[in-house]
User: Fold this.
Amino acid sequence: MFLEILTPDKKLFSGDAEYVDVPGEAGRTGVLRNHAPLISALKAGQVRVRDTAKKEHLFDIKGGIMEVLNDKVIVLAE
Assistant:
């Protein structure tokens, strides 16, 4: 799946990912390939990304929104 993590200042991540784990308002949410469409509010915490090379990336956020649609994940974060 394709993932973009964007802040008002810069792009934190853009590329293919195997797994994304975000701090949702209702609890942590994990996203894999072919996930059902979803829009979720995010709270402060850490976004975990495992890319296609099995490398893990960690990003601290203060909140935001995540959209999952057509095997693409967009995280708009503070």
Observations:
- The chain has one domain: 2-77.
- The CA atoms of residues 37 and 69 lie 5 Å apart.
- Strands lie at 2-6, 11-24, 27-31, 38-51, 56-69, 72-77.
